[in-house]
Amino acid sequence: MADVNRGNRPLSPFMIGPYYRPQMTSISSIMVRITGIASLGSVFLAICWFLAAASSETAFNFFNGLYGSWIGNIVMLAAAWAIWYHMLGRVRHVIWDFGYCLDVETSEKMGWGMFIGATVLTVLTALVFLIF
Amino acid sequence: MNFLTDRKRATGLGSGGTGAQHHWLTIATSLSLVVLVPLFVFTFGYAVGHSLEEVLAFYSSPCIAIITALCLVGGIIHLKTEVDEAVEDYVGGIKRKLTLIAVAGFCYTLMAAGLFALLKLAIQ
């Protein structure tokens, strides 16, 4: 009813660990959230680079050198994997939201598709930048 | 006697108090990612590592500047729905409201800062 318990409803419990066995469906879905939040961090780092480029040559050289170093390249590759994974994972959620592929077997296949697809796309991204 | 209809009772419910609006925004922006993510990964990845003059020349191209602006705005709107959802799941009560406001402040600051920097690069 309208006047019952409007603000004080329970939070969703954190189930992974002792209560809920890790499965392809749950882990691949949680990874969508983790990569989404991590990607906001990637966007923050990208905007630091843009602001540095807009500010001064010294600031730009610092960030550009940092991101262009081998450790920077590894972080950028990890960020690329995360955003590719997130993109694929979100497509899976849209497919589910529209009512398709809701059976466990197909969902698990799509989960594998997200992990493998993100890895393939990241390797392709790295290859494109190595070649061009 | 209760005069409220079922629809009225459901309005404003949902963990964030916004009903289905947030869910729809997530669906719509999820599909936009399919276009925005490849565009951003390849343009930004290309620009990093070049000299400042080359970067200025790259981002002063209208096409690249518009693509990047779209990616920043669209991408941050999507990622904000993502963080909001996590906050709504794990933070409750007044803390949830304050955290959601802080997340919005962070996201819109990023957006404004990114657009300003991009504009400056594009017209310099």
Question: Overview of this structure, please?
Answer:
The complex is a heterodimer of chains A (132) and B (124). Chain A is mainly alpha-helical. Chain A is built from 4 helices and no strands. Chain A has helices spanning 24-55, 57-68, 70-97, 104-131. Chain B is 81% helix and 0% strand. Chain B has helices spanning 6-10, 21-47, 52-59, 62-90, 93-123. At the A-B interface, α1, α2, α3 and α4 of A face α2, α3, α4 and α5 of B.
Question: What is the secondary structure topology, with strand pairs?
Answer:
The complex is a heterodimer of chains A (132) and B (124).
Chain A: H1 24-55, H2 57-68, H3 70-97, H4 104-131
Chain B: H1 6-10, H2 21-47, H3 52-59, H4 62-90, H5 93-123
Helix pairs in contact in B: 2-4, 4-5
Main sheet specs of chain B: none
The chain pair with the largest interface is:
A-B, 43 and 50 residues
Assembly of the depicted chains: heterodimer
Number of strands of chain A: 0
Overall 3D geometry of chain A?
globular
N-to-C series of helices and strands of chain B: HHHHH
The radius of gyration over CA of chain A amounts to 20 Å
Reading off the top of the CATH hierarchy, the class of chain B is best stated as: Mainly Alpha
Report the count of strand segments of chain B.
Answer: 0
CATH architecture of chain A: Up-down Bundle
Helix count of chain A, per DSSP?
4
User: Quick one: CATH superfamily of chain A?
Assistant: Fumarate reductase/succinate dehydrogenase, transmembrane subunit
Largest sheet of chain A: none
Q: What count of helical segments of chain B does DSSP give?
A: 5
Q: Structural class of the helices, strands and pairings of chain A?
A: mainly alpha
CATH level-1 class of chain A = Mainly Alpha
Low-confidence stretches of chain B: none
